[in-house]
């Protein structure tokens, strides 16, 4: 038990919180068909994180969040610029900009000497869950002991704070975010600033990306952003249930993936652990396959719904 | 209705020297027009004439090169609660996870305000708006499972829920079944009986004189505007539709009151 508290609780919690934070925001990206933008942001923040780390010399959250925000905003503006100047389709503009930013981040890691401390390419790709240990834990009593809790890894605490912030915003702006996601033109016509709302979502996505970065790695942030929302979308057509199911999927992905990676080998008697971030993405993939087969929009659901096929008129766009 | 004391009837909508361009291509050029103070008004013109853009420019949804917009004589910011927008049905993703009632209820958001859930009373008013378009039974239905006509009714219910004095509707009849078309016409007529104004982009030249009392003929510039009977003439339609022969023939046939050519 003490070993679980010392070695597994913090990384498992961090992984789950990261998946929840990204997964809930992922709904707003998926429903506005912007999942690729989440991908772009999760990669584009890397040079900002490295620069923040380089300038401040610590893994303190504030400078890295500031750097990440600057990089995210810079990338978003650059994508808009490439789209309007080069008249490229949005996907191409995003692809060029975010891979460029990500590459710049990798180069910055090499030249800044950050990798000598504890920021290297492996950590960027896979996260650093195993570094989140809680040696102060001496038993279940430590969970209520303020002195021991003060030693609890800061990354997990930051993630908990970010998740609370996201939950708070979702609660406060529940109907506004739904309106802006469904019909931004109508939202604007009645004075509900949809551009400010979508900017807020993008800012929150970059905050979640930075916070989740240490847990699951930059590449797997995209799995956490896209997979839970996609799984939920296959299972429901109701807005509130979409968020609840994506939360459940994120929970299963984070905790289940970590369990499969760290605890399962011990149970099965393997002498080595599996990569936690990798197992989380695999878990999400399996859930997605399951949702595909069982969901309302999968083969089973489609047979039931064949009765009511919506009639679509050709779009009269002007 | 918030009636304002005015010596002369103020146009419900007026635009002055309005110009809009996409990628350096003018879509609207120096359009000046004042709608009648009340009644049903059609905006008619060929594809790409800027009809939808005119409505969007009123709500600042597209950047203007120049021009002013007045709603009951006031700028948009002061008159927002008096004007309602019905966007083209094809402009949103109907696969979005929402019910008919949730969409109609968006028309009550201005009354509910920011940062709080929609009060029950407002939701009931949205339900009443759905009932006005015969959609009460389908309030809980997912919008993706509705037919095109039913989706258009949901959009109309959301507009009605705004309780505006002026409605700008972008192709309210596009792709709807005959029953829905009749239902929408009835709603529009009821709105004008209540003294409200409806300005609608309308594609069907045959039904335009039947449904609408006034018309604005638009093709990048304002070609002609006024009461349907004296404005919707073959000459004006020819000027609006230019050299597009097949359309022109339709237009002339329509103007002569026959549906034969269609």
Automatic annotation (TrEMBL), chain A:
GO cellular component: ATP-binding cassette (ABC) transporter complex
Alphabetical GO biological process terms: response to zinc ion; transmembrane transport
UniProt entry tagged with the keyword GTP-binding: no
Main location: membrane
Transmembrane intervals: 12-31, 36-55, 61-82, 91-109, 156-174, 186-205, 211-231, 243-264, 276-295
UniProt cross-references to Gene3D superfamilies, sorted A to Z: ABC transporter involved in vitamin B12 uptake, BtuC
Source superkingdom: Bacteria
Topology of this chain in the membrane: Multi-pass membrane protein
UniProt-listed Pfam families: ABC-3
Alphabetical list of InterPro entries matching this protein: ABC_BtuC-like (IPR037294), ABC_TroCD (IPR001626)
Record keywords: Cell membrane, Membrane, Transmembrane, Transmembrane helix, Transport
Location within or outside the cell: Cell membrane
SUPFAM superfamilies: ABC transporter involved in vitamin B12 uptake, BtuC
Similarity section: Belongs to the ABC-3 integral membrane protein family.
Name the UniProt record assigns to this protein: Metal ABC transporter permease
Gene source species: Siccirubricoccus deserti
UniProtKB/TrEMBL annotation, chain B:
InterPro entries assigned to the protein according to its UniProt record, in alphabetical order: AAA+_ATPase (IPR003593), ABC_transporter-like_ATP-bd (IPR003439), ABC_transporter-like_CS (IPR017871), Metal_Ion_Import_ABC (IPR050153), P-loop_NTPase (IPR027417)
Membrane-traversing stretches: none
Stretches assigned to the ABC transporter domain: 13-245
Annotated GO MF terms: ATP binding; ATP hydrolysis activity
Keyword line: ATP-binding, Ion transport, Nucleotide-binding, Transport, Zinc, Zinc transport
GO BP, one annotated term: zinc ion transport
Sequence similarity: Belongs to the ABC transporter superfamily.
Protein name (database record): Metal ABC transporter ATP-binding protein
Organism this protein belongs to: Siccirubricoccus deserti
Phylogenetic placement of the source organism: Bacteria, Pseudomonadati, Pseudomonadota, Alphaproteobacteria, Acetobacterales
């Amino acid at each position: 038990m003490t070993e679980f508290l010392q070695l597994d609780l913090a990384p498992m919690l961090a992984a789950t919180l990261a998946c929840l934070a990204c997964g809930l925001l992922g709904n707003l990206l998926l429903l506005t068909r912007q999942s690729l933008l989440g991908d772009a942001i999760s990669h584009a923040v890397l040079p900002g994180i490295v620069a923040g780390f380089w300038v401040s010399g610590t893994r303190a959250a504030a400078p890295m969040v500031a750097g990440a925000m600057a990089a995210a905003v810079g990338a978003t503006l650059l994508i808009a610029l490439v789209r309007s100047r080069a008249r490229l389709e949005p996907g191409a503009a995003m692809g060029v900009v975010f891979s460029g930013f990500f590459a710049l981040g990798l180069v910055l890691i090499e030249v800044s000497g950050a990798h000598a401390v504890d920021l290297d390419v492996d950590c960027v790709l896979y996260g650093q869950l195993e570094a989140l240990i809680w040696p102060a834990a001496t038993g279940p009593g430590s969970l209520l002991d303020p002195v021991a809790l003060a030693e609890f890894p800061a990354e997990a605490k930051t993630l908990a704070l970010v998740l609370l912030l996201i939950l708070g915003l979702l609660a406060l702006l529940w109907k506004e975010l739904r309106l802006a996601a469904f019909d931004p033109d109508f939202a604007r016509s009645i004075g509900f600033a949809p551009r400010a709302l979508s900017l807020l979502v993008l800012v929150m996505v970059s905050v979640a990306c930075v916070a989740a970065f240490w847990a699951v790695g930059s590449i797997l942030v995209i799995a956490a952003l896209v997979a839970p929302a996609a799984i939920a979308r296959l299972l429901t057509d109701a807005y509130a249930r979409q968020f609840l199911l994506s939360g459940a999927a994120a929970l299963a992905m984070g905790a289940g993936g970590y369990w499969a990676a760290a605890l399962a080998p011990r149970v099965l008697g393997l002498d080595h652990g599996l990569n936690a971030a990798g197992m989380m993405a695999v878990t999400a993939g399996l859930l997605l396959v399951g949702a595909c087969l069982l969901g309302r929009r999968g083969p089973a659901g489609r047979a039931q719904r064949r009765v009511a096929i919506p009639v679509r008129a050709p779009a009269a766009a002007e | 209705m918030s009636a304002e004391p005015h010596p002369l009837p103020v146009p419900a909508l007026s635009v002055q020297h309005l110009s809009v361009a996409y990628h350096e291509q003018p879509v609207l050029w120096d359009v000046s027009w004042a709608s009648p103070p009340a009644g049903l008004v059609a905006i008619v013109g060929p594809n790409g004439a800027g009809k939808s853009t005119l409505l969007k420019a009123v709500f600042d949804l597209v950047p203007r090169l120049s021009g002013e917009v007045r709603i009951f004589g006031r700028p948009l910011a002061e008159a927002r609660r008096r004007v309602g927008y019905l966007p083209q049905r094809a402009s949103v993703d109907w696969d979005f996870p929402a019910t008919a009632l949730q969409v109609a209820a968006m028309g009550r958001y201005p009354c509910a305000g920011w940062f709080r859930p929609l009060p029950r009373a407002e939701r009931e008013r949205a339900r009443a708006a759905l009932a006005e378009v015969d959609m009460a039974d389908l309030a809980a239905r997912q919008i993706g499972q509705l037919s095109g006509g039913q989706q258009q009714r949901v959009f109309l219910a959301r507009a009605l829920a705004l309780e505006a004095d002026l409605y700008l509707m972008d192709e309210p009849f596009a792709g709807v079944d005959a029953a829905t078309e009749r239902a929408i016409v009835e709603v529009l007529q009821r709105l004008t009986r209540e003294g409200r104004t409806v300005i609608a982009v309308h594609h069907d030249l045959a039904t335009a004189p039947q449904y609408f009392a006034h018309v604005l003929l638009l093709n990048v510039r304002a070609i002609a505007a006024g009461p349907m009977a004296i404005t919707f003439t073959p000459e004006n339609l020819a000027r609006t539709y230019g050299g597009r022969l097949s359309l022109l023939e339709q237009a002339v046939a329509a103007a002569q009151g026959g549906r034969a050519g269609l």
